[in-house]
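Progress report, Aim 2. The chain analyzed during this reporting quarter is listed below.
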Amino acid sequence: MKSDPWGNSLSLMGLTPRTWRECQAAIQKKLNTSDWEKFSRLWRAFSNYRTLETSVRFYDFVFAHELGNAINAPRHNRLAEVLANLQSMDWENAFVLEIGAGAGYISGVLAEKLGPSRVMVQDICSGARTLLETKGLKVLPHPLPANQFVEKKFTHIICVDCLGEINADEDDVLRADSPLEMDKYAEAMEQRYGMMEKLSPYSQLLNESGHVLIWEPLKHQRAWEALAFLSKREGWEPKLNSNPDGLVFLDLKTRL
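Predicted structure tokens for the chain:
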């Protein structure tokens, strides 16, 4: 008997597909005038300047005002596709860490399907960490201590739209038709996104046969190839995967 798609669990979490314009209207209706103006300022700042400070300030406000479903509604279909990818994998004896877990959609489904004792989470935003704890998920501290200890190392570390969210990609260097050779192009990507640097502290928590699974809203294939190039340079064994709908993700095997 075929199991139900994991993406169906999103609606049970209150997440339904909406456009960003519809989400803004719902948020404006929920907030008072002062809070709506503050939300708008924080959103503009975060949209225009993707820094740690603007990210934390925006998301702390979002979670303090219970707006997680509202701002994530435009991502519903993408999250459902990610969950379809995950559902097709083998999770026997898995022990999973999701970094950048946010409102806990991916980790929440995994905890439901695998059991809560087999899933841990982390996020840079204190508001998100508080929310994740209320959902019964075990939360790692942020920043991750250099000597962070876990009783059992993870078989999978999952990163969905989190490694590249804070970035300094404010020019046109990373366009698909950039004249840069791959090594220079990849270096330019790391300078602007720092994905390998952000991932590095977590490698100590991965077991010998573990995988890091990365989904990012990269705009074209060359950017994905650059990310694979960077990860191989850092000692990972990368494999790019895609499905018929065009969703791409990167599977990194434990360091060679």
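The domain at 75-253 is CATH 3.40.50.150 (Rossmann fold). Residues 133 and 147 are 22 Å apart (CA to CA). These observations will guide the mutagenesis work planned for the next reporting period.
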